# Entry
Amino acid sequence: MQQDEFAGKVVVVTGGSRGLGHEMVQAFAERGADVVIASRKLETCEQVATEVAQKYGVRALPVGFNVSSWDDCDRLVETVYAELGTIDVLINNAGLSPLYPSLEELSESLFDKVVAVNLRGPFRLSAVIGARMAAGEGGAIINVGSIEAIRPQPHALPYAAAKAGLHTLTEGFARAYGPKVRVNTIQAGAFLTDISTNWPEGLQEEMEPKIALARCAQPSEVVGTALYLAGSASSYTTGAAIRVDGGWA
# Structure
């Protein structure tokens, strides 16, 4: 990977104001990319945008949007192209895995919300942005998936099903928009983001013996794979799911 290959590129990160998204925003901005921080709370996006613009001297565009809304996804795309002119990398990172009392007590509205955030929104963004990339200079789309897609647990079953669908979209969009657009998935394991503070009691201790590295990951440990999949080092990689899960058994 060339040291300056992201300089001047435009990288859109959904869910970019915290957790894995925040780490990826910082990493691309540090390497000279202009970044779009897109998340539900505009104020938080604005804070991150100010932070990275001052720290790295890049353009940072905050956009408040609801990834589960088809119209909001379209508005995000139009806003970025109007303000920054292009999109070189899309990272579908925004996700949702709420707790529920039991499978039979899971409400229809919560099920629909989980699917909308984790699957419907990434579909719409990939379809619209991917088409523009394919018609232009090309680009890369990175979906942040989950080990749950292949190792589903009862406490996160709708999320697991949506992430399995996201993996399917990865291969489908890679075929639809290749050869100019590469589409890949980071299949993430257990990361200690702010969301992990709401895990059920004892879940981390239950998971770690199942992991070859015997620990959950720090958020910054997603960065290397994201940079790889966005850059020239992965020029012959598309339609792939790369496990970043510490060796989950």
Observations:
- The chain has a mean pLDDT of 92.
